Structure formats: C-alpha cells, structure tokens
Amino acid sequence: MDNSPILVVEDDDLVRSFLCRALAGIYADVDACATGKDALRAVDARRFGAILLDGLLPDTHGIELAKQLIVHPKATRSGICFVSGSLRHPLVMRDGVSALPKPLRLRELLEAVGLLISWSKDTASAPAARLAALNVLSAGLLVT
C-alpha cells in the first residue's frame, strides 16, 4: 500500500464515491471534495501525490483549477489527472499531467494514479513545462 495522499475533486457524488473506494484499497489516504474552492483549501492544508480533477466543476473549469494548482507552493509536485466525459481515450502523462475518459476503467485509473505518484516522488518538472503540457491536454478536452 502506498502512503501518498490523493485528492479527488469531483462534483458528481457517485463518481466521487467510486473513485475514493477504488483508490482506498491501494492508496490508504484519499481525500475528496466537490468544488475548486474546496480543492484549493485542501491543497493549502497538505501536499498530495496525485490530484484527480473533474473537467467541469460547479465553480470553475478543471483546466483553470489545474493552472492554479501547478503554481501553488504545495502542489507543484502533485501529479494531476483529469477525469472527463469529453475524452474517448486516455491521454498519456506529460510533465505530471494526464487525463482519463469517463466511464472509467479501474485498471487504467490505478495505472494512471501509480504513474502520477511515481512522477511526484521522482521527477521535477518546471511549472512552465507543466503549464505547456496542460495547454496540450486542454485541446483534447475540447476546452474553449
């Protein structure tokens, strides 16, 4: 079992519950919230190895939240994975940023989170490189 904390940011109760249950068996420390504001509060309080983000939250777009997280002092080394219904296929991690399509496949979820945790422990990417990776990813999420 890995001890790296994970944050799930998802406004859909069922999806959030699924993600937390699926991850809790391998990563014992899983926090969850439903809004961008609550996500920023959680990150203010502690560091996370991985953050899973819904693409569209009630108070912000996931891309905008990710931009804030990438430059947040406690989240610069947090891997970020979008979970979005606008994707058909997973987007490979680049500089600690990746994406998974809904509906989720458990194997893909666990693999993606494992890669993000490894990245957060072993690799350092400059915020500029992470923001560039986020820009590439946002094109795949059909963000305007």
UniProtKB/TrEMBL annotation:
UniProt keyword annotations, A-Z: Phosphoprotein
Gene3D superfamilies: 3.40.50.2300
A Gene Ontology biological process term: phosphorelay signal transduction system
Domain Response regulatory, first and last residues per copy: 5-117
Top-rank taxon: Bacteria
Organism placement in taxonomy: Bacteria, Bacillati, Candidatus Dormiibacterota, Candidatus Dormibacteria, Candidatus Aeolococcales
Naturally occurring in which organism (per UniProt): Candidatus Aeolococcus gillhamiae
In-chain residues carrying the UniProt-annotated modification 4-aspartylphosphate: 54
Coiled coil: none
Signal peptide: none
Protein name as it appears in the record: Response regulator
